[in-house]
Write a structure and sequence with these properties.
The protein is an alpha+beta fold. It folds into 2 domains: about 50 residues, no CATH class; about 50 residues. It is built from 3 helices and 5 strands; from the N terminus they run βααββββα. It has a 3-stranded antiparallel beta sheet with strand order 1-3-2. The chain has a two-stranded antiparallel sheet with strand order 4-5.
Length: about 110
């Protein structure tokens, strides 16, 4: 997996930002590589590989997550809520129907 840290190009330099050589050095110090399609090399970004095995990024998919046995969707008052299987905390969204909450959770899993 690549973590792409995009640069603003010269716009930041004109308002007191970091100059190009400093950006490249900071990128190198962070373990990244400066990537640029611009022939001048001025416009680009720092690309740094990250370790996907980092525990902070992994979700427990063994069925032993933070959701109760009844599932990760729960009715609270007159709204349906989603419980995070990673933290056990409620998502901030409120859904009018269980089906809408299920659709939101399904959409989340498509992207994660």
């Amino acid at each position: 997996m690549q973590l792409e840290m995009f640069d603003t190009g010269s716009a930041g330099d004109e308002v007191g930002g970091t100059d190009l050589e400093q950006k490249k050095e900071l990128c190198k110090q962070a373990g990244g590589q400066w990537v640029s399609d611009d022939p001048s090399g001025k416009y680009g970004h720092c690309s740094k590989p990250i370790d996907e095995s980092d525990e902070a990024l992994e979700e427990d998919k063994s069925g032993k997550g933070k959701c109760p046995d009844s599932g990760c969707i729960s009715k609270r008052g007159d709204k349906w809520r989603i419980i995070s299987n990673k933290t056990g905390k409620l998502w901030p969204q409120h859904y009018d129907t269980k089906e809408k909450a299920e659709a939101a959770l399904d959409a989340y899993h498509v992207h994660n």
